[in-house]
Specification:
Elements: H1 10-14, H2 17-38, H3 42-61, H4 64-86
Length: 87
């Protein structure tokens, strides 16, 4: 007798094991990039930021709501950290 497949919620259906593996790979790639960036000199960091600024702006110009909801809070947090450093 065959057992019915276990019920899965919509999130489980949408995020297949293959997708989950892709997310893990993406996160490890992001961590690697972050580590590489941390190891750059200040001049190299500035040159890199200048080189990706246009792509960054293009990405968020496609979805300004996402930029507002994700980036503005980060900027506010960074401003708070900068104020604390200046004291």
């Amino acid at each position: 007798m065959k057992h019915p497949p276990p019920e899965r919620n919509a999130r489980q259906v949408l995020i297949s094991p293959k997708t989950q593996q892709g997310k893990r790979k993406t996160m490890s790639t992001l961590e690697e990039l972050k580590d590489k960036f941390s190891n750059l000199t200040e001049e190299e960091k500035l040159a890199f930021l200048k080189s990706v600024m246009l792509s960054f702006c293009e990405t968020f110009s496609k979805n300004s709501e996402k930029m507002m909801s994700e980036m503005i809070p980060l900027c506010m947090d960074m401003q708070g950290m900068m104020k604390m450093r200046c004291k």
